[in-house]
Amino acid sequence: MKASNRPVHPTPRPARQKARRILLVDDSRAQRKVLSIQLRRAGYVVTEAASGAEALRACEAPTPDFIISDWRMPEMTGTELCRNFRNLKRDRYGFFILLTSNSDSADIAVGLDAGADDFLTKPVSGAELLARLNAGERLLRVEEELRHSNDKLRAALEELHETQDAMERDLREARKLQQGLVRERSGRFGNHELSLLLRSAGHIGGDLVGFFPIGAEKVGIYALDVSGHGVTAALLAAQLSVHLSGSADQNVALRAAQSGQEAVDPATLAHFFNNMMLEEMSTDTYFTMIYAELNHVTGRISMVQAGHPHPVVQRADGRIERLGNGGMPIGLFERPVFDEISVRLEPGDRLLLTSDGLIEAVGPNDRILGEEGLDAIMRTNAFLSGHAFLESMAWSVSEHSRGQRNDDISAVLIEHRAPAETLSLKRR
């Protein structure tokens, strides 16, 4: 009895959920019969094909895990079958073994180029065949595990994309709500005109600007910048907006109970917020602020600077002055020192309050715009006023940073117009 025909005790194969399918391709019915008996005894599900064309039809469904094909066959050789098999659209890998009577290295190179995984020399040893199948089993198991992991990863990515889409929608709505915190973007009080600018680096940010009337002669003006970005900063900014709203029962600047006066003065307001941050909020977040009280009859502005960039006055003759010594941020120290500033705006003068996102805008070669850059922008746009000035300033900053905005940008522009100019604006 030849070695290829001797009974072979099946080699135990790794446990799996279902038997592997083998497509046995050979134009010799006798050869197929011998191998088929051995493979079925080993627990495989075997399908036979007498030609390459028949084998390709058999690959459609159910798809085989292994293909064992003779090399020399009429009409379509084993290598041609292998190449055609590799071109089929399959959702899993198929292990291809070529049977050859020639172990020449040139033939093996041709088979490998066609996509074959392994070779067996005729006459085929049953033990060697099962050993090669076990080796192929390991490769198929690895491929299945990778495919399963990819499926899980794909499902996780799809879920993540859905979550991100939902977050994007929520953030877009949150942006609308946050923009709504700035109820008015401009206002006129006597001979003074107020203009506001608020641009977030992302969907939502921590900058906030606004104003509210205080009696018949005064108006409160605020500009603040919460540390950090995103949801945390936006939530604190929203809470602060409630405390600075126009409603007298909510606006802490309008509460007269503590001082018995018409309104809480700027320094007292800063200390109130500092105590609120330290006593009521368990957070590492802080914010910088300028709160100003404008008397639009006299042009006198009293303000407090709490870590915010210096207020900038541009006089009617073009001179630029920086005010204040800085002061400490709100929410960091138990006994902070804030800078109290007083300035008078004459007709033609204007006061600009900006967040650090503007002067810290980064341009080419990591060059920061800085105070000198802001001065240059103010001089260049001196002929503009109101929102036109702020929009041109924002455009210049965007040009400097090549359109990249790493921080929120906010600004308040207070302009003291001459009476004739104010009358002209009212008539427009």
From TrEMBL:
Hydrolase in keyword set: yes
GO terms of molecular function: phosphatase activity
Pfam families, alphabetized: Response_reg, SpoIIE
UniProt superkingdom: Bacteria
Residues covered by the Response regulatory domain: 21-137
Coiled-coil positions: 139-177
UniProt-listed GO biological process terms: phosphorelay signal transduction system
Keyword hit for Phosphoprotein: yes
Keyword entries, A-Z: Coiled coil, Hydrolase, Phosphoprotein
InterPro entries: Bact_Sigma-Reg (IPR052016), CheY-like_superfamily (IPR011006), PPM-type-like_dom_sf (IPR036457), PPM-type_phosphatase-like_dom (IPR001932), Sig_transdc_resp-reg_receiver (IPR001789)
Gene3D superfamilies the UniProt entry points to: 3.40.50.2300, PPM-type phosphatase domain (3.60.40.10)
Modified residues (4-aspartylphosphate): 70
PANTHER family per UniProt: STAGE II SPORULATION PROTEIN E, STAGE II SPORULATION PROTEIN E-RELATED
The name this protein goes by in its record: Serine phosphatase RsbU, regulator of sigma subunit
Source species: Paracoccus alcaliphilus
